[in-house]
Specification:
alpha/beta; Nucleotidyltransferase, domain 5; five-stranded mixed sheet; 6 helices; 34% strand
Length: 265
């Protein structure tokens, strides 16, 4: 069992006696049995200071993995972790740490850039909305030889308390010859959620990584827009659970990649 820390290191609302900005380090494990706080002046906010704090917080048991959700913290924490041989996992899903920050009434907003178009050499031949009953979705894909498969246990329908008949909405992309290349690109991008955004035109926006946003599709067809609204409504019923499936064609014989997604947080 890997020992995991969730870590944030950022400017805090606190000031020192000389009214200087303080940076605050917060460390917790996923259960919050471990909680560690340290502050330093901005002039000392570097990887060497962080390295020493990690040693102090560890009580001789350094973590195997440090999870980070804040892009602005990534480089400093990574440098300190590298000094100690700790692996880094950038992820938005630092639930315990975000709960702690909310209790402290610290802002959690991450600046989001405008979404970028998907690279043209990756886009497939067509796509469609789909849905699969909650009771079938795990078995449907875990029993198949899919090269890229991500079904996190904590968002499986049974663990969200969803009835087996609830439809889980999703998007299927038929990638043709680009299918495997697209699936590998998505794997590297680390999908978080796929959202319908109304506009002119309407679009499907992929939230990925720590703060990345990609335009997977745009459309003005009224029938597609109606289907997109149903997709969004079903996401509300399914507690945010949805999926993204990439396959070469509609034969149902071969799949390239499948992601079960559950919203940003």
């Amino acid at each position: 069992m890997n020992l995991i820390w969730q870590v944030d290191f950022y400017r805090s609302p606190l000031r020192d006696a000389a009214d200087q900005v303080l940076w605050e380090l917060l460390i917790c494990d996923p259960t919050r049995k471990l909680e560690y706080i340290a502050t330093c002046p901005q002039s000392q906010a570097n990887s060497n200071w962080l390295t020493e704090q990690f040693k102090l917080a560890s009580a001789e048991n350094l973590p195997d993995i440090i999870q980070i959700f804040r892009p602005q913290s990534l480089s400093l924490i990574t440098a300190a972790a590298n000094n100690l041989g700790i692996n880094i996992e950038p992820t938005r899903r630092t639930f315990a740490l975000k709960q702690w920050l909310q209790e402290k009434k610290y802002p959690l907003v991450i600046d989001k850039l405008p979404p970028e178009p998907l690279p043209e050499n990756l886009w497939g031949e067509e796509w469609r909305f789909a849905n699969i009953p909650a009771g079938d979705i795990v078995d449907e894909f875990t029993d198949r030889p899919i090269p890229i498969l991500q079904i996190p246990e904590y968002i499986q329908p049974i663990n969200l308390g969803l009835a087996s008949t609830v439809p889980i909405p999703g998007v299927v992309i038929y990638g043709g010859r680009q299918s495997m290349r697209l699936a590998k690109w998505l794997q590297a991008a680390n999908p978080v959620s796929l959202n319908y955004i109304a506009g002119a035109p309407d679009g499907l926006i992929l939230e990925a990584g720590l703060a990345d946003r990609w335009i997977l599709a745009t459309f003005e067809d009224q029938e597609v827009t109606a289907a997109a609204k149903v997709y969004a409504q079903r996401k509300q019923v399914s507690k945010g659970l949805h999926f993204l499936l990439v396959q070469p064609d509609d034969s149902g014989m071969t799949y390239s990649g499948f992601w079960l997604l559950g919203g940003e947080d």
